[in-house]
């Protein structure tokens, strides 16, 4: 058997050399990335206009793998194992580190091509397949691939020794480059069914995020979830969220609507004032663990991770696609171990009771409730104040009375095309006080932005403090 696991990605889409732009790795250079368990090297065995091939080779240090932090979190406890030699969850980590931007669907120089399905071929060897080898076709063929598998000899120099328990895999199909990478990221560990690190709630979010757009429709999604997550409770949670998750519209459309509101508020730097006001309240609360509900693309999370006060940060968002953007902007895959342990992103609905949201010191709900249908507010309030019950909740929402002062905002028009409502100060205070009385919280209010004598401040903030157990 070979000493290193090897993945190659090839295309004949002309000019094929554009693969270098898609992967953001120049074919003329050798690219090396240090990993916690070894080194990843990207190079191009061929790069012409007719065909281009990028190779990702992993050189894994078995001593680093066992001695590192992964051992404490569920990595193999033996020095003798196949981790350094066969494709596994280690390959997924390397894919995210070396091709993270491509995996997120973005290309600095060839965005249109990144969004276009092209002829692609991926080869992996050696690859462990736990169980029936028919599973390979079951996983890849529904995604539109032609699948070829072959045997890997124990030693090419000694054919009489026979074949190893590993295979070589070739998948071909017309795919977006990001889709190919996400399929490999998820399905290689599924074939192996034996991850090198601790499997917890974060892996549910990762599966949903990397499987967004294809996993929910896969005919064998149950099998994928069970083998990827290993534990029945986690796979059930993932499948439940797959059934419940609704991607209301593409991230690009959401961004356009967000921009419409930002254009209105930008002259008074309202978003910056909101972030600073919320951070100040969080610091005053003394919280060390906190939730950001409806975290979006991570604007608040980026500030929180810079503050040493917050040792446990959980961002929650209903849209897996938006979560993927947040993870990229936060550079989660490139964070050091100590920093990465502090923050987690999960996909989830804010109107359901969720055990993952319990036990936090504080929660923020920044410009979120106005995006909910009014009839769902009761379920949201019960899930947050009645079930999760953080000690402090900081919630902001637009003040409708102030809208008349924004240039270009006509009477009766809301700030954001997706807002279901915008409350007056009295309406918001009524909602907040009712929640406080019902669930055992005291409530105070603070304006954000310059206060107009008649119309109030542009943003209204409520601070809830738990008074009952």
UniProtKB/TrEMBL annotation:
Extract one GO BP annotation from the record: regulatory ncRNA-mediated gene silencing
- Top EC group: transferase
Q: Which reaction does it catalyse?
A: small RNA 3'-end nucleotide + S-adenosyl-L-methionine = small RNA 3'-end 2'-O-methylnucleotide + S-adenosyl-L-homocysteine + H(+)
Superkingdom to which the source organism belongs: Bacteria
Listed EC numbers: 2.1.1.386
The record's SUPFAM superfamilies line, in alphabetical order, gives: S-adenosyl-L-methionine-dependent methyltransferases
Location of the Methyltransferase type domain: 291-393
The protein's GO terms of the molecular function aspect are: metal ion binding; RNA binding; small RNA 2'-O-methyltransferase activity
Among the Pfam families in the record, one is Methyltransf_12
* Keyword Plastid attached: no
Give the keywords, sorted.
Answer: Magnesium, Metal-binding, Methyltransferase, RNA-binding, RNA-mediated gene silencing, S-adenosyl-L-methionine, Transferase
Query: Which InterPro entries did the record assign?
Result: 3'-RNA_MeTfrase_Hen1_bac (IPR024026), Hen1 (IPR026610), Hen1_N (IPR024740), Hen1_N_sf (IPR038546), Methyltransf_12 (IPR013217), SAM-dependent_MTases_sf (IPR029063)
| Hen1 N-terminal domain: residues covered | 5-242
Q: Which cofactor does it need?
A: Mg(2+)
Q: Which family does it belong to?
A: Belongs to the methyltransferase superfamily. HEN1 family.
**Which NCBIfam families does the record cross-reference, listed alphabetically?**
bacter_Hen1
Name of the molecule in the record: Small RNA 2'-O-methyltransferase
Which organism encodes this protein? Parasphingorhabdus marina DSM 22363
Origin organism lineage: Bacteria, Pseudomonadati, Pseudomonadota, Alphaproteobacteria, Sphingomonadales
């Amino acid at each position: 058997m070979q000493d290193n696991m090897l993945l190659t990605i090839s295309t004949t889409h002309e000019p094929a050399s554009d693969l270098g732009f898609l992967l953001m790795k120049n074919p003329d250079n050798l690219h090396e990335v240090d990993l916690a368990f070894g080194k990843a090297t990207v190079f191009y065995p061929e790069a012409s206009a007719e065909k281009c091939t990028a190779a990702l080779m992993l050189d894994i240090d078995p001593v680093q793998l066992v001695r590192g932090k992964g051992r404490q979190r569920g990595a193999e406890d033996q020095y003798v194992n196949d981790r350094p030699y066969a494709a596994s969850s280690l390959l997924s980590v390397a894919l995210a580190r070396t091709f993270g931007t491509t995996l997120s669907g973005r290309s600095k120089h060839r965005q249109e091509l990144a969004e276009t399905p092209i002829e692609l071929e991926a080869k992996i060897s050696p690859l462990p397949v736990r169980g029936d080898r028919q599973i390979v076709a079951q996983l890849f063929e529904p995604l539109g691939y032609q699948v070829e598998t072959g045997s890997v000899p124990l030693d090419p120099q000694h054919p009489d020794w026979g074949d190893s328990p590993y295979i070589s895999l070739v998948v071909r199909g017309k795919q977006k480059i990001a889709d190919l990478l996400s399929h490999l990221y998820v399905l290689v560990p599924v074939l192996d069914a034996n991850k090198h690190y601790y499997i917890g709630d974060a892996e549910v979010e990762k599966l949903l995020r990397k499987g967004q757009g294809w996993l929910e429709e896969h005919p064998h999604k149950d099998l994928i979830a069970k083998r990827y997550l290993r534990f029945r409770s986690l796979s059930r949670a993932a499948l439940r969220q797959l059934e419940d998750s609704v991607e209301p519209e593409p991230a690009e459309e959401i961004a356009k609507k967000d921009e419409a509101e930002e254009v209105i508020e930008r002259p008074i730097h309202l978003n910056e004032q909101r972030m600073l006001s919320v951070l100040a309240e969080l610091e005053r609360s003394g919280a060390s663990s906190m939730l950001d509900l409806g975290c979006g693309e991570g604007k608040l999370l980026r500030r929180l991770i810079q503050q040493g006060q917050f040792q446990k940060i959980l961002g929650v968002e209903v849209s897996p696609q938006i979560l993927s953007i947040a993870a990229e902007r936060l550079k989660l895959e490139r964070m050091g171990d100590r920093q990465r342990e502090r923050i987690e992103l999960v996909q989830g609905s804010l109107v359901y009771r969720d055990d993952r949201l319990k036990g936090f010191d504080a929660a923020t709900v920044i410009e979120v409730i106005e995006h909910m249908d009014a009839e769902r507010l009761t379920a949201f309030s019960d899930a947050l104040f009645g079930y999760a019950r953080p000690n402090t909740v900081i919630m902001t929402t637009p003040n409708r009375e102030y809208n008349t002062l924004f240039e270009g905002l006509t009477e009766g028009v809301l700030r954001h095309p997706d807002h279901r409502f915008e409350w007056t100060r009295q309406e918001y205070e009524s909602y907040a006080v009712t929640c406080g009385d019902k669930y055992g919280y005291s409530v105070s209010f603070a304006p954000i932005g310059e206060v107009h004598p008649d119309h109030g401040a542009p943003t209204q903030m409520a601070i809830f403090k738990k008074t009952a157990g």
